[in-house]
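User: Let's play a game. I give you a shape written as tokens, and you guess the letters that built it. Ready? Here's round one.
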């Protein structure tokens, strides 16, 4: 594919560093993968059995067709621009989503001109969340082909939690760059719940990841989502085993490139009381990471992470200046985007 056959200027250093001999040049293909919390992408009709009443015309958000269409346009704009800093006109091969109400919203989202121009499709399984928000994945079929889609339920362990239901883990298996890749899209229990519930999610996703690798040890697994915890929190660092340094990975661990972004750069994807959190993460199995000294890009490997930023995603005035520009805040419709910023990881594979 011509648009992926030319190595961008961003890779010139990589080409030089990984040439076997000074006179031998190598070329690489680059792929982008993202995640973005849609912050209440609801249509304005009631879904039977779901507590979506605040997003009806008579609800607290006064949610109507005009606001819904504006929300779709805004989200499609961001999604279409993710990954284009490195891959202009191409963007992401696939993007995990959270806080999407239903398949109807996804149909409308993919029909937006910014996404339909690239032929985006979606994967979704209706989940048990009482508000009706689900995880989903949109993808460019020219870059990623889907093999299998399943929703793995979040399972409670304690009798007192028998009525506790929340989003499951959407596992989408497919082919990217000729390789078996599985994305596990998550939206872990909120911080209104005790940390135990997110730690339980971490353990269950780790078990899911392990089962995927037992089925195919060559599978490249990426766990992505709004974890409602930072990379340094126990749910991520201990229970999921998502570690900060590639050279420290032990059997069963995953690599988390966002840990040092939060700790060393003190920035993140959402701001609360003036401080940044980094809840939105994409972590990966060790077979996607080169450890120190390795120069093997013969298979798909991690290159670099990016918190996707555009000026229009931020408040420029008022009490929340510098924070993310939400759709609604303080009961006022702002015609914004989300309380979270998107994240992207870039992957590289040598072309032969």
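Assistant: Ready! My guess for every position:
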């Amino acid at each position: 594919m011509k648009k992926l056959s030319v190595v961008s200027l961003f890779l010139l250093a990589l080409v030089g560093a990984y040439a076997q001999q000074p006179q031998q040049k190598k070329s690489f293909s680059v792929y982008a993968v993202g995640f973005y919390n849609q912050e209440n992408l609801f249509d304005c009709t009631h879904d039977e059995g779901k507590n979506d009443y605040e997003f009806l015309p008579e609800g607290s958000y006064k949610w109507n067709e005009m606001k819904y269409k504006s929300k779709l346009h805004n989200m499609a704009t961001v999604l279409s621009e993710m990954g284009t800093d490195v891959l202009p006109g191409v963007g992401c091969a696939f993007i995990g989503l959270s806080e999407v109400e239903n398949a109807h919203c996804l149909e409308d989202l993919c029909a937006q001109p910014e996404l339909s121009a690239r032929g985006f499709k979606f994967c979704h399984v209706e989940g048990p969340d009482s508000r009706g928000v689900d995880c989903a994945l949109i993808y460019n079929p020219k870059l990623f082909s889907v093999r299998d889609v399943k929703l793995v339920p979040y399972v409670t362990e304690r009798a007192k939690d028998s009525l506790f239901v929340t989003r499951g883990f959407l596992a989408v298996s497919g082919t990217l760059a000729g390789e078996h890749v599985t994305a596990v899209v998550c939206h872990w229990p909120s911080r209104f719940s005790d940390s135990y519930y997110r730690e339980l999610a971490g353990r269950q996703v780790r078990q899911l990841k392990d089962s995927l690798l037992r089925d195919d040890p060559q599978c490249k697994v990426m766990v992505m989502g709004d974890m409602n915890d930072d990379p340094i929190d126990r749910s991520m660092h201990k229970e999921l085993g998502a570690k900060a340094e590639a050279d420290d990975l032990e059997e069963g661990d995953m690599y988390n490139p966002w840990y040092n972004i939060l700790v060393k750069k003190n920035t993140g994807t959402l701001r609360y009381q003036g401080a940044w959190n980094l809840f939105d993460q994409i972590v990966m199995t060790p077979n996607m990471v080169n450890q120190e000294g390795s120069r093997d890009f013969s298979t798909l490997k991690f290159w670099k992470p990016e918190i996707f930023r555009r000026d229009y995603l931020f408040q420029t005035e008022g009490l929340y200046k510098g924070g993310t520009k939400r759709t609604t805040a303080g009961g006022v419709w702002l015609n914004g985007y989300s309380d979270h910023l998107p994240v992207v990881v870039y992957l590289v594979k040598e072309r032969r």
